[in-house]
Structure formats: C-alpha cells, structure tokens
Design goal:
Elements: E1 19-21, E2 35-38, E3 42-45, H1 48-59, H2 64-78, E4 88-95, E5 100-106, H3 129-133, H4 144-155, H5 165-173, E6 175-176, H6 179-185, H7 195-201, E7 214-215, H8 218-230, H9 233-236, H10 238-248, H11 259-263, E8 268-271, E9 273-277, E10 280-284, H12 291-302, H13 314-334, H14 345-349, H15 351-358, E11 391-398, E12 404-412, E13 420-421, E14 424-425, E15 462-466, E16 471-476, H16 483-496, H17 501-506, E17 510-513, E18 516-519, H18 526-534, E19 551-556, E20 559-564, E21 571-574
Antiparallel strand pairs: 1-2, 2-20, 3-11, 3-21, 4-5, 4-12, 5-8, 6-7, 9-10, 10-15, 11-12, 13-14, 15-16, 16-19, 17-18, 19-20
Helix pairs in contact: 1-2, 2-4, 2-5, 5-8, 12-13, 12-15, 12-16, 13-18
C-alpha cells in the first residue's frame, strides 16, 4: 500500500446548473434515478432527501466529509433498513491537494467477552440464523459516527455541530416515507416484526406506515442534537450507551456488551490499498473489508480480453463470471481481521499469483468450482461458513475542491437486529462472523469470532485515479457478499467498456461463486443468456441478484457525471 505522490490540482470548472437525463433502458420504470452532470460538486446516494442534505452542506462551503456526515445522518432516518447511527462503515477518501487516498475503518467490534462459539447452540451446531440475528449477541460496538468524527477532524471545513440540521429537521417535522422504507416496514423480515419495530412503524390507527405517509421520529431528532453537541461520545458513553447495553442484555439470548466496550471503541485509518489496473490506479480499504477481493477480481480480468468485449457480448460476461468465482474462492478462505489473523493480502495481489490464477479461466467454457489458491503467506485456514445478508447502502460525494468520499455504511441486515434505542436500530453485525469457528480437522476459520475483533466485510468503497493521481471515478454498493460482484461489474463497465456511470450501475447483475450463477436474468439480452448457457454458465434468478445499490460519480470533460442505481430510491445531483 503506497500513498500516491502529492501534486497540485488544476482549477475546477466554474459552477453551473445541473442538467438531468432520463435513465438508460435497463433502468426500472418505477425507480426515480437521475443522471446529473455538474461542473462544481455532486452527491450520489440512495435517497433524494439525503442527497439534498449533502448538497446543502456543499453549497455552504463544506467539504466532502462534511457532506458525508449530513448524508449519513439523514440516511439513518429515511433508510434505517440499510444504515444508521447504530451501525458501521468503511470510507475511502481522496485528498485533491495531495492526491493521496486514505481508508477509514468504522467497522463494528465484538465485545471483549465474545467467544468463538457464541453462535453455537447447546447441541454443538450453529444457531439458526434468524435466532442469532434477533439475539442480544448479534450487535457489535457501532463505529460509523466515530469514523465520521475522525474523518471530519482530518478533513472537515464546517463545524461538526452544523452538519446535523437537516436530519434533525426531518425527524422533528416529519418526512415522506420513501418507497423502500415503506416496503421494508411491511415486509416479512423477522427484524421488522420485533416489538421495537412494530411499535415504531405502527400508526395511531393500528396500521403500519406506507410509502407517501408523513412520518416523525422525535427520539432520533434528540439523538442527532446530542451527537451534534457531543460527538460520538453521545452514543458511546452516557445515557444512550447505558440504554444500548440494557437493550442487548434482554432476552432472547442476551449479549455481553458492556459500557467499557462502547467507550473503548476506536475507528482506524491508514493509506488505502491501491493497485494499478490498466492505465488507472484503483484504491479501496484493506482487510477486513472486501477491497482486497475487488482488486484481485480486477487483476484477474486485466489478464483477459474483456476490455475488447462489451455488455452485449456473452464472452465478456463469461470472463467476468469465471474471474468472480476465483475472487470469491480466495476471499472466502483467507480474509479476516488482520489485527487477529494473518491475511495474505500481498500474496493475493502479487502479479505472479494473479497470473497463475488467471490461467484457470477457460475462455471457452465454465469448469467446476475453483478451489482457493495458495498465495504467499496464506497459512492453513478452514473453509468459510459465514453467511452475509444484504442490508447496507453506499454514497459518493465530490466537493468543490475536488475531494472525494466513497462510503459504504450498514446495520448489516434489514433493520439490523430489530432492537431500537434512542430512535435508531442497533446493528446485527456480529452475525457477519463465521458461526462455526473451526473445520472438522480443527483448522481455524479466518473469520471466527473473538473479543474486540472486527468481522469480515464485503463493503469495498472504491476510488479510481489516473497514473498522475487525478480523480477518475468513485463507486460502491450494498448487497452483502454480492457487493464484490456489483462493484466489479461497475468498475469493469466504466473502465473497460467505457460506459457512462449511470449505464454502468444499471447493467444487469451477475454473481458467480462456487456452483451458482445468480443473475437478473430478465434484464440480460437473450443472446447473452444463450451464449452463456452454451459456455456452461446457466443464469438463475436468485437471492442477492437484485440487491445492488450502486452509486458513483466520474469526472468527464464537462465536470462531474453521476449514477444512481435504479433498483433503489436514489439520485445523483450536483451544481
């Protein structure tokens, strides 16, 4: 991992009014996606209210990190099924002055008393997944607010206390329930049926909130007022922290979190993990994020002729699927928290290792599921038993100085654990650990539970630069383990197939891992589906295939051009 050399930036183009274009044909008809083109600054996020909160901060002279604070505060209110004050996040930050990229780690941590077998039942078998999610054991110490506070101390321009006004106003005065929140509140998830969620989403007439209703959350307003005044201490210490611990100590399956665990939480930062890709440099967070896997996927594709293909060519999707299978095989075996286990990131990304792995891609047909490789520094690791649901969101911000935030943020599953405190849901992030800590031969899982450990994540917010360190693009997605495939698709589409960001994020999704090829089959042209089938790639509509929420921004000669995933409620707007 190396910082890019510091060089001066050229002056930004003069500000002008944003223009909008209709979504490409692949976009869903009912999704309010906007493709913005702006010369000055831009926000792309999964909800228009959050985008406007970020733009309001940018118009006031705020930085990309300032805007990120405002965006997250609003998303936690209007998209609580995906992220919030009680969750965690990874951020990749580009400093336009120094042309350097920093990774911020706000991943949740397990309580000090957590044990490798805490998700094993008395019969010696892993707990039922829903049972584990709803338990007090599923919640890790939340890190998103602390991470944003750290980044703001480094790169903020406006006072922290001024960044929560829009979230406070919406929570106090009410907001119109977005489509996805209304659907989730009336969905079948176990977390949406908990006593806390039921009380929160039920109106005085006994019915649940619906899209288009006006909804208020006074408790959330009070919490963001406290965070504005006190910083992350507002939820990691004091009365809210006490409420978190008390709520997690309640049945079923009480957790072991203490006030000391909350007070001890520290986010991390360091140089981003950057690797060359063709004429670009792609930067992501390092382990335990999904960044190393996405970089490996790009490295494998770079050794194919996928750049000569395109989204209408089945051969391009074949190469994509086979590189994806190799990426997942290695990631599932080796990635964990590097503070606790040896993670062979350098070995996984070595050119010689990528050469060997890429040779396993048969350009003519799909073979059997590839086993994990043996990169330098790998050691002995058990096959992974982690299951990751898709309950996350991503947003991207570019400010007037050219600084960039690419941030993926989560409460893990829909509405996290379903337990609420002070107007926000608590995460169920610890179920991102492997429930089974060892294999039958005793080999340890890289992602086994341990006190103070951060669970493995698929989140991989990416920033792309040219070889002179100038910003090219930023993108990321939610989607559980499918995040890796979603991000890889978008990066391939923008960098190799030269599609505009909006068209790139709207492309059909294909997640290839092991024996399955989950896909949005109906969105692929028939010749692509048929061509893949002829190569042994049988696309099937399946879990995860429609769960993307890609949001990105790219620099073009006119300024900034954004993309917002038509599968969500978001927009990309600038000025």
């Amino acid at each position: 991992m190396k910082r890019l050399a510091s060089l001066s930036l050229a002056a930004l183009l003069a500000a002008c009014t944003t223009t909008s274009a209709p979504p490409p044909p692949a976009a869903a008809a009912d999704a309010p996606t906007t493709q913005g083109v702006a010369a000055h600054a831009m926000v792309s996020a999964a909800n228009p209210m959050a985008v406007e909160a970020g733009l309001k901060v940018l118009r006031a002279g705020g930085s990309a990190v300032d805007a990120a604070v405002a965006v997250q505060a609003v998303l936690g209110l209007v998209e609580p099924q995906s992220s919030g004050l009680g969750g965690g996040a990874f951020m990749t930050y580009y400093d336009a002055r120094t042309r350097s990229v920093t990774a911020y780690d706000g991943r949740e941590t397990a309580p000090a008393a957590a044990t490798p077998d805490m998700f094993m039942g008395p019969d010696g078998k892993p707990l039922n997944r829903v049972q584990a999610i709803l338990s007090g054991r599923s919640t890790g110490v939340p890190g998103a607010v602390a991470m944003l506070s750290m980044a703001h101390a480094d790169h903020g321009k406006l006072p922290w206390s001024q960044l929560f006004g829009e979230a406070e106003r919406l929570a106090d005065q009410g907001f119109v329930v977005p489509r996805r929140l209304g659907e989730a509140a009336n969905g079948r998830s176990a977390q949406g049926q908990t006593p806390d969620a039921t009380a929160y989403f039920t109106k005085p007439d006994g019915t649940r909130i619906r899209p288009g209703d006006t909804f208020r959350n006074p408790a959330y307003a009070e919490t963001v007022r406290r965070i504005a005044a006190e910083g992350p201490k507002a939820i990691l210490e004091g009365s809210i922290a006490e409420a978190i611990v008390a709520r997690l100590r309640q049945d079923p399956l009480p957790g072991a979190m203490t006030l000391a665990d909350l007070k001890a939480y520290r986010p991390k930062k360091g140089p981003a993990l950057c690797r060359p890709f063709r004429v670009y440099v792609v930067c992501t967070p390092g382990a335990p994020s999904g960044g190393p896997a996405v970089l490996q996927g790009l490295g494998l594709l770079e050794r194919t002729d996928i750049a000569a293909r395109g989204p209408a060519d089945p051969q391009g999707w074949h190469l994509f699927s086979q590189a994806s299978r190799l990426m997942y095989a290695d990631r599932d075996r080796y990635i964990g928290d590097p503070a606790f286990v040896e993670v062979p990131v350098e070995g996984l990304l070595e050119p010689a290792y990528l050469d060997r792995r890429a040779k396993l891609i048969d350009p003519e047909k799909a073979g059997p599921p590839p086993p994990p490789g043996n990169p330098r520094g790998a050691g002995v690791r058990a096959p992974d038993r982690t299951v990751e649901p898709a309950g996350t969101t991503h947003f991207t911000v570019v400010d007037a100085a050219g600084n960039v935030v690419s941030m993926t943020t989560t409460v893990e599953s829909i509405f996290g654990s379903g337990r609420m405190v002070a107007g926000f849901f608590l995460n169920n992030q610890l179920t991102d650990f492997s429930f089974q800590p060892t294999f039958t031969d005793g080999a340890p899982a890289a992602n086994a539970v341990a006190g103070g450990k951060r669970p493995r994540s698929s989140m991989a917010p990416a920033i792309v630069l040219d070889r002179q360190g100038r910003f090219v693009a930023a993108v990321g997605s939610p989607g559980g383990p499918a995040i890796l495939a979603y991000n890889l698709k978008a990066l391939t589409a923008v960098l190799d197939w030269k599609l505009p960001m909006q068209e790139a994020v709207a492309l059909p999704n294909l997640i290839a891992s092991g024996t399955y090829y989950a896909a949005e089959v109906d969105k692929f042209p028939a010749p692509v589906v048929e061509g893949l089938a002829a190569r042994g790639v049988q696309l099937r509509s399946g879990a995860g295939a429609e769960g993307s929420g890609l949001h990105g921004i790219e620099r073009v000669p006119e300024g900034l051009r954004g993309g917002a995933d038509p599968r969500r409620d978001g927009v990309a707007l600038g000025f």
